[in-house]
Amino acid sequence: MYGPKPQGTWTATALAHGGGDHQSLRVGQRYRVMIQFTDYDKSIHPVGEEWTFLGHSFLPYEEGVSFFVSLDGVLEWHLRLQWRPEEQAEVLDHLDRYLSPVVAKH
Are 99 and 33 spatial neighbours (Cβ–Cβ below 8 Å)? Predict the structure, then answer.
């Protein structure tokens, strides 16, 4: 996972090219990791980690999926995944098992 970077570093380009929501992930929604996983860059995302989904991009040639997230609501992080069985296909195929929306408490 790369970052942090200033707001708009990655999302300005991603959103301009249609990289908003991805499957069950909605831009602006906060998510919690429910099953630990390791991303393409070998960063571990433990159970309980939370971030706000800001958008995504897809690189067809390498089957690369980038999620742009914010841990603090201000700065952006770039989380890279690869949609191949030997990489993160399991996570991408079952996002609803790995990530759960965080419900705001009233």
Answer: yes
Convert the chain into a string of H (helix), E (strand) and C (coil).
CEEEECCCCCHHHHHHCCCCCECCECCCCEEEECCCEECCCCCEECCCCEEEEEEEEEEHHHCEEEEEEECCCCCEEEEEEECCCCCCHHHHHCHHHHEEECCCCC
Phi-psi label, residue 5: left if phi above 0, alpha if psi -120 to 50, beta otherwise: beta
Q: Which residue has the tokens 């991603």?
A: 14
In terms of pTM, does the model score above 0.85? yes
pLDDT digits (tens, 9 = 90+) for 24-54: 999 999 999 999 999 999 999 999 999 999 9
Alpha-carbon gap, residue 70 to 78, rounded angstroms? 9
Domains in the chain, CATH or no CATH each: 2-95 (2.30.30.350)
DSSP lists the bridge partners of residue 30 as 52
Amino acid identity of residue 93, one-letter, is D
